[in-house]
Amino acid sequence: MIDNDITFRKLEIFLAFMDKRNISRTADLLGLSTVSVHRALHTLEESVRCPLFIHQGRNLSPIPAAETLAEYAREVVGLMKRGIEETRKSGGVGQGRLKLGTLYSLTLDTVPRLIMGLKLRRPNLELELQMGSNQDLLLRLEDQQLDAILLSVSDTQIDPARFETLPLFNDDIFLAVPASAVHIVNGPADLRDFKDEKFVSLTEGFATYHGFQEAFHIAGFEPLIVTRVNDIFSMVNLVQAGVGCTLLPGRMKKIHDPAFRMLPLAAPYQMRQTIALVFARNREHDPDLLALLAEGRMYALGRRTRETQAAPSLTAETSGRPGR
Q1: How far, in Å, CA of 76 to CA of 6, rounded?
Q2: Confidence grade of residue 90 (pLDDT, cut at 50, 70, 90)
Q3: Rounded distance, CA 270 to CA 49, Å?
Q4: Cβ(130)–Cβ(102) under 8 Å?
Q5: Three-state SS at 273
Q6: Per-residue pLDDT tens for 33-79?
Q7: Which among 75, 134, 113 has a CA at the least distance from the CA of 276?
Q8: What are the angstrom distances between the C-alpha of 82 and each of 2, 10, 12?
Q9: How many whole angstroms separate alpha carbon 32 and alpha carbon 23?
Q10: Could you tell me which of 121, 113, 229 has the C-alpha nearest to residue 169?
Q11: Contact 184/239 with Cβ under 8 angstroms?
């Protein structure tokens, strides 16, 4: 049996020492302390149960037995490195290709910004973008069909034992109405005032579906839904065409169109989504995912900074006083 204390790390330190023939230079090469290098060599020698070095003054010198071990160690370490590379290739890890799933609505701003930043970090990375509902994206991530997903985690159960979650931003829900709607108010909208209006909705599994159901439960009536669609842009098109009203996340304000308006909801119906990046814990060391994670943190920080800078001007507008 091979001694448990003979590790690949110790073999790598041993091989570096055999190349440098000096503990200090080995420590500098590996970014370790001289004490760590000396301890690794000493414990390796003990585990092999054979003398490998002799002391010549303050220097440690290898003897023929060390040369023999180094010959086999190079072969073993090299074979293991190739094995790991082939294993990662088989598992689709770190191969310069990333499959990213996202909600349709996040393609307006979040996804383009992340992709642009990611391409700067890893210019040769090939990115495959897939869109779907919250439910669909999570299922594809669980089945390892996707490497990472962008979705709303507010109404979604994410298993913390299996997945890492990086929150990016919070988004309020608004009432979207056609410009021709009778009930258009300047202040917060009370859903009860829209009881006689027609509505369009996303199908079950989308981020705003459960919020849609909950809001009208609080309002105390069942909305007249004339049609259900499978993507948020189709729903916006129906609202613009005057087919009906709906609930939309604030990020959809990026669509500037006089054919519809987005009204803030009155206090009883106010909802907020948390948009996050989710990926498997066992992929946390994948260099491509690490780059995406770093860009996600930068995006979240930049968004918070922009919101903080915008807050004083919004306060000034609502108070009628100039911002300071």
Answers
A1: 12
A2: low
A3: 70
A4: yes
A5: strand
A6: 999 999 999 999 999 999 999 988 778 899 999 999 999 999 999 99
A7: 134
A8: 21, 18, 15
A9: 10
A10: 113
A11: no
Instruction: Please say whether the beta carbons of 103 and 156 come within 8 A.
Output: no
All residues at 6 or more sequence positions from 66 whose CB lies less than 8 Å from its CB, including other chains: 14, 18, 52, 53
DSSP letter for each residue of 6-52: --HHHHHHHHHHHHH--HHHHHHHHT--HHHHHHHHHHHHHHHTS--
Burial class (CB in 10 A: 0-12, 13-18, 19+), 298: middle
Whether the CA torsion 131, 135, 138, 143 is positive or negative: it is negative
Name 214's Cβ contacts closer than 8 Å, sequence gap at least 6.
Answer: 271
User: Three-state SS for 97?
Assistant: strand
| Under 8 Å between Cβ of 278 and 103 | no
Taking every pair of C-alpha atoms in the chain, what is the biggest distance, in angstroms?
95
pLDDT in tens, 173-203: 999 999 877 666 677 899 998 898 999 999 8
pLDDT tens digits for range 95-139: 678 899 999 999 999 999 999 999 999 888 889 999 999 999 999
Q: Residue 142 in contact with residue 159, Cβ under 8 Å?
A: no
Work out whether the CA dihedral 181, 185, 189, 195 comes out positive or negative.
negative
First to last CA, the chain: 74
Q: How do 260-264 and 163-178 pair as beta strands?
A: antiparallel
Q: Phi, psi at residue 88, to the nearest 5°?
A: -65, -40
What is the distance of C-alpha 83 from the center of its chain?
28
Reported as a single tens digit per residue, the pLDDT across 245-277 is 999 999 998 887 888 889 999 999 999 999 999
Cα-Cα-Cα-Cα dihedral sign, residues 85, 90, 92, 93: negative
DSSP letter string, 106-173? GGTTHHHHHHHHHHHH-TT-EEEEEE--HHHHHHHHHTTS-SEEEEE-TT----TTTEEEEEEEEEEE
Cα–Cα dist 269/220, whole Å = 11
**Coil, strand or helix at 202:** strand
The SS3 call for residue 278 is strand
